[in-house]
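Task: sequence design from structure.
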């Protein structure tokens, strides 16, 4: 009998993290795409760090930062009675940081691909920046927006190292699907590990297929137009 709780936790975590990153990512990626500030390379480097850093390194520093003995972790524990390590809330914070570049980079590329004439035309029609963003820019970069959402969601579902270090492996609380596979391997329950791994493999294939299918469809549409 398959225990679906780890998958439910994984999808719950991914859904929350994707929503948070979408809310944060749109204005931040828009700023990166349009700024000419000298600090842009520095910000882009910070954003991309989770891609190149080993998960164990990032997980270690997050574990230290979120612990009750740290400034941030101590603040939440003292004023909200909330322990961020070995908790679902801690998983959300860690996953937001780790999945940040997977939301930002596709959105930034999408913003940079928008024809500036469309934006200027919107401003000439009396539309403000907010209306232009949601009525002109975002509808014309749906492919990038959807790619960012799908990749962020999938990456969070499959994350292992960071969530294991920050959340541990507490059944029903922090034991997501990737951690459950690790636990099954440790106790040599290869049958369950095979089942869980096969489900994760299928989900990963579906996600990547959707992304490439959408990109190819968009390329053909642009080719037909021009």
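Answer:
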């Amino acid at each position: 009998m398959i225990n679906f709780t780890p998958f439910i936790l994984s999808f719950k975590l991914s859904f929350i993290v994707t929503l948070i990153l979408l809310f944060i990512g749109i204005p931040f990626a828009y700023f990166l795409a349009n700024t000419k500030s000298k600090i842009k390379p520095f910000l882009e480097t910070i954003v991309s760090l989770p891609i190149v850093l080993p998960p164990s390194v990032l997980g270690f520093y997050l574990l230290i930062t979120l612990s009750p003995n740290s400034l941030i972790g101590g603040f939440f524990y003292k004023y909200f009675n909330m322990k961020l390590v070995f908790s679902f809330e801690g998983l959300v914070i860690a996953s937001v940081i780790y999945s940040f570049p997977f939301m930002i980079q596709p959105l930034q590329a999408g913003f940079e691909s928008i024809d500036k004439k469309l934006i200027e035309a919107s401003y000439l029609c009396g539309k403000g920046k907010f209306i232009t963003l949601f009525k002109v820019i975002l509808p014309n970069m749906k492919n990038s927006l959807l790619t960012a959402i799908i990749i962020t969601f999938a990456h969070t579902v499959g994350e292992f190292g960071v969530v294991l270090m920050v959340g541990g492996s507490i059944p029903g609380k922090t034991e997501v699907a990737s951690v459950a596979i690790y636990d099954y391997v440790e106790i040599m329950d290869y049958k369950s590990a095979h089942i869980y791994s096969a489900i994760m493999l299928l989900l990963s294939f579906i996600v990547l297929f959707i992304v490439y299918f959408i990109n190819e469809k968009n390329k053909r549409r642009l080719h037909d137009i021009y």
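The chain is about 80% helix and 0% strand.
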